[in-house]
Amino acid sequence: MKKAHAVRVTSLDVARLAGVSQSAVSRALTPGASISDAMKRRVTEAAEALGYTPNVFARSLITRRSDFIGVVMGEVTNAFYAEVLDRLGRSLQKRGQRVLFAGAPLDAGPDQAVQELLHYHVAGIVITSATLSRDMAARCTAAGAPVVLLNRKPPPGEASSVRCDSVDGGFLAGDLLARAGHQHFAFIGGLPGAFSSKERERGFAQALATHGKAIAVRADGGFTYQGGLAAARGLLRRSAPPDAIFCGSDEMALGTIDAARVQGLRVPHDVSVIGFDDIPTAAWEGYRLTTIRQPVERMVERTLEILFEQIKQPGSKRVVQQIAGELVVRGSARLPAGYLAATG
Amino acid sequence: MKKAHAVRVTSLDVARLAGVSQSAVSRALTPGASISDAMKRRVTEAAEALGYTPNVFARSLITRRSDFIGVVMGEVTNAFYAEVLDRLGRSLQKRGQRVLFAGAPLDAGPDQAVQELLHYHVAGIVITSATLSRDMAARCTAAGAPVVLLNRKPPPGEASSVRCDSVDGGFLAGDLLARAGHQHFAFIGGLPGAFSSKERERGFAQALATHGKAIAVRADGGFTYQGGLAAARGLLRRSAPPDAIFCGSDEMALGTIDAARVQGLRVPHDVSVIGFDDIPTAAWEGYRLTTIRQPVERMVERTLEILFEQIKQPGSKRVVQQIAGELVVRGSARLPAGYLAATG
DNA sequence: GTGAAAGCGCTAACAG
DNA sequence: CTGTTAGCGCTTTCAC
Fold first, then answer.
1. Count of Cβ atoms closer than 10 Å to residue A154 Cβ
2. Which of A62, A211, A282, B63 has the most CB atoms at less than 10 Å from its CB?
3. Which of A76, A128, A257 to probe by mutation at the B interface, max B CB count within 10 Å?
4. Nucleic acid strand D: bases within 7 A of protein CB
5. Do residues B106 and B88 make contact, with C-beta atoms less than 8 angstroms apart?
């Protein structure tokens, strides 16, 4: 059984064992410091022998930098964001960074959470909950902590952002539905103020316009299953119910499918449904939801790429990037004639 | 527009403004330090005027304690754990603690993640991924960081644990199914080595034995939808297929329901299915899964209670607590005759 | 109860 | 390239 050293080993201990100065130890463990290979090896060996790791607090006290990356997230219970967090965590762990997790009340915005993170001299911040205020963005810049927003409205100022191209994604959905010959189109949005939801609706409307159609009716479902279910129920009970419904998120689309089934409607025979996200549940046998996939992996990767670029190169220009969504054809929407033949 | 002080305000600044010593400032912000009310007020006012907050690194460097709580979690993408994290985050935020999030590779165990957390002098650790090794548990104790495991096998040694009573939960499921008159019982477990899964199976078997029955066949589904689907497909294709399936998790139960439907079986008419967890999806219209609910809220609350007790009172005895699960009757399992009348 | 002084363990500027 | 030196901002003795 290994002994549990309660006594902490410091750089001085390592220095003594290696027979060098304490600052040499520091340099040996600082990438890019000017130190000879021989010295470096000597120190490294002594450090390993003692099981030494630098005290993160002493280090951060001086450098004013930590290896924390702050993650501000509103809804971990949303499958899409759970996956974002999962991938974020793995990537950061691999790069030797730590995740300082901050839930943000959806109603209050991320400002307070960000303020707290700043106390910990986070190296950077990823926000997925809502848009940052201009004031807080400025504070992050002043504190030297670059910010990247994921799937949020690019805030005014210097914060970067990565998002799935919602307009384009909405267009994909609208185009498919229109070409399949549907006549009455409905859109179910998330929260009235949500930027991504509005963009998805816009793209949807644009595609319909291309075909001389328009959104006949809309409702909001708060991005949740229950909300989507309720919204769809209302829509489908109208005297002229829609035969094509595009939802701003998969959860709402799944609720929509269930609402249709409860009313005895067949999907997609009586009504076509398309979602947005491609969460795992969308692929379940019970739903087989046709949807617009957000390429989470690439989005997260790009987010971190930008973040680390800015960390390494403070003051570099902000980047506002869109990544294309991708139509995933399953069974919840009728297809245009000859569609399968055309796409192979 | 507020000015973004790039210059940090230190306790010395506050001391100067208040006309007191720097150590007085420290004492004013340390609960339980010996200081007069007048002095405390004076310092507090100056601190507020300057927007002062102590440098967490300098503080932790001395005290060897941070306000981080480490959370080691394997599967955020699992709806049950997403909810755990969500609640954990909210509660901790409320108590002024920060969440240091560490994903743990399921295959590697939590030891490495815990080791990393210890570097940050976390005040405590919550683990939901797998059981801690005895060695690492000892190291946590040595480092003064209490550990509470959530829904994991209580490790040998001093770590506390809170879990849903799986034996009892399994019993509930078995009892209901047996009393409803089913004849062929199947169990779908998670991973072969998973403690909670084994306990659920044991309780299930015990209940069946009470009625002179037994588990006829079993399979493993890795706790996932796809795994449950595949496992159930195999089970239902047997020459003597089960008419009652108890699954070690809701996701697998949902997969089981879909597997049954794909084969043209009606649930619960042809086969009854019961899950475990009560994740939000279990309540969806498309499934209406009868399941054993884990009272997440209480479990998380109790976990934190124990953790903070141990933080406040180092060396206090470990607690191993079980919290009862609760049968949630929906539509995926046939009920014993007169059941509804009897339960009101 | 209060101030002065001594570090916590480390990085970074400075000589050599 | 290497050692010496000076703090980072705070908590915590120690005198008074």
1. 19
2. A282
3. A76
4. 1-5, 7-13
5. no
